[in-house]
From TrEMBL:
SUPFAM superfamilies named in the record: GAF domain-like (SSF55781), Winged helix' DNA-binding domain (SSF46785)
UniProt protein name: Helix-turn-helix domain-containing protein
Gene Ontology MF term list: DNA binding; DNA-binding transcription factor activity
Gene Ontology biological process terms in this record: negative regulation of DNA-templated transcription
Alphabetic keyword roster: DNA-binding, Transcription, Transcription regulation
Keyword Transcription: yes
Domain annotation HTH iclR-type: ranges: 27-89
Length: 274
């Protein structure tokens, strides 16, 4: 098989030249090209070939060929004055097509808006991408103080209510694989993170939801519930979260957690999965 190594950035993967051709089904050049697109982080508009080579571990001459190809295809734009690249419209087009095909967003949004207003918080739907959860839908209340995360925002898998909820319904082998990778990147904090995940498993078994109270950010509290997926669909999860001073643990446990469970059951039923 192709040797896949996690880079210093947990969202990137290093593909070894030594393994080229060992897995006949795996196209190394395609994989590397996609990793180049992943180099761009929120708030970063331009990156050079040297930047991307450093982040991916891919040799700079190879990076140059990949960025040239991606530019020709419209996935990157090149700035002559800066000598750097930015993401192109082709990336946005792919993301839009993915979102437009998610029926669950349209089905869930009215219920999410209602709960967000009741909680005076935010309610979001997300799916896993490596060691992160990515928001595919989000609703905010009319409150002045709330979380400002939009569609496309990434939050950690292991320390958030949404992430822990999703872990609860993954197959054991997949869950163990992800936890092993997280342990490598979070060596010092891993005992505390693991304890939070194990508590999440217990909470889900006992109550049907998981809680994150200051585990991701000290001033953020949230509750999360996973959603059953149909065969071939990516597993997803919902959360309801906001500032800790507005969402006490008692409110999460006694009010918002049960409400979010009911919301997810309604969505599953409307999608024919309940």
């Amino acid at each position: 098989m192709t040797n896949i190594q996690t880079a210093a950035d947990p969202e990137l993967i290093v593909f070894s030249d030594d393994d080229e051709g060992k897995d006949r089904q795996f196209v190394n050049a395609l994989a590397r090209g996609l990793e180049v697109l992943r180099c761009f982080r929120p708030g970063e508009v331009f990156l050079s070939n040297a930047d991307m080579a450093k982040r991916t571990g891919i040799p700079k001459p190879t990076i140059s060929r990949l960025t040239y190809t991606l530019t020709k295809l419209g996935y990157l734009n090149y700035s002559d004055s800066l000598g750097k690249y930015q993401l192109g419209a082709g990336v946005l087009a792919l993301g839009y097509r993915m979102l437009s095909n998610l029926d669950v967003r349209k089905m869930a949004r009215p219920l999410m808006e209602e709960l967000a207003e009741h909680a005076q918080a935010s309610v979001s739907l997300g799916t896993r991408d490596r060691l992160s959860m990515v928001y595919v839908e989000t609703c905010r209340s009319s409150a002045n103080v709330t979380l400002r995360l939009d569609v496309g925002s990434r939050i950690p898998l292991m320390t958030t209510a949404m992430g822990k909820a999703l872990l609860c319904i993954l197959p054991q082998a997949e869950r163990d694989y992800l936890m092993d990778h997280a342990r490598v990147h979070e060596t010092e904090r891993w005992p505390r993170i693991k304890a939070g995940i194990e508590q999440g498993f217990k909470d889900y078994q006992d109550r049907g939801f998981c809680i994150s109270a200051g585990e991701w950010q000290n001033d953020v509290h949230a509750v999360g519930v996973p959603m059953l997926g149909a065969d071939g669909e990516q597993v997803m999860a919902f959360n309801c979260g906001g500032p800790a001073f507005l969402l006490s643990r008692e409110k999460l446990e006694g009010d918002l957690g049960p409400r979010l469970v009911a919301l997810v059951k309604t969505v599953e039923k409307n999608l024919g999965r309940g």
